[in-house]
TrEMBL record:
SUPFAM superfamilies: Acyl-CoA N-acyltransferases (Nat) (SSF55729)
Origin: domain of life: Bacteria
The name this protein goes by in its record: Acetyltransferase, GNAT family
Organism, as annotated: Anaerofustis stercorihominis DSM 17244
Pfam families the record matches: Acetyltransf_10 (PF13673)
InterPro entries per UniProt: Acyl_CoA_acyltransferase, GNAT_dom, N-acetyltrans/Recomb-assoc
N-acetyltransferase domain boundaries: 1-139
Gene3D superfamilies: 3.40.630.30
Molecular function GO terms recorded: acyltransferase activity, transferring groups other than amino-acyl groups
Length: 142
């Protein structure tokens, strides 16, 4: 397995994985407004172009995606066939190796425990904006 920044022609596959995992694990706890807001974000080439997107590949298949904007994690999804196998940790460690200051995230309810295991701490209580439910967090382990 290798991790690298994705190429332009891989964006569609990476976002396809994000959408598939989102629908299975996040969408059930979101109102329709939040699902549509997330879909709109993924379909916005302007928003996606602001991200640095990295993927974990097994052979040529994308099995995990992490995207940052400066030092904020905007997307972090692993194919469910690879949950609890260390792929998420490897993706996060890769980001830690290239970001030289604190890392922030707005964690979905499903991922709060994952981020806590990675060393993040909550900076506020759970919130909702445009139907997106999240807990603001920070990683100060740098």
């Amino acid at each position: 397995m290798k991790i690298r920044e994705i190429k332009e022609e891989e964006i569609s596959s990476a976002l396809g994985l994000v959408w598939k995992v989102f629908l299975k694990y996040e969408a059930p706890s979101y109102p329709n407004e939040g699902i549509e807001e997330f879909k709109s974000f993924l379909n916005s080439s302007e928003e996606i172009s602001k991200l640095n997107i990295y993927a974990c590949f097994k052979d040529e298949e994308i099995i995990g995606v992490i995207a940052i904007r400066e030092s904020h994690i905007s997307l972090f999804f692993v194919d469910d066939k690879y949950h609890r196998t260390g792929i998420g940790r490897k993706l996060f460690d890769y980001i830690r190796s290239i970001v030289s200051h604190d890392i922030t995230v707005n964690s979905s309810p499903y991922a709060v425990e994952v981020y806590h295991k990675l060393g993040f701490t909550d900076t506020d209580k759970e919130q909702m904006s445009n139907g997106i439910i999240y807990t603001p967090m920070i990683y100060k382990g740098i």
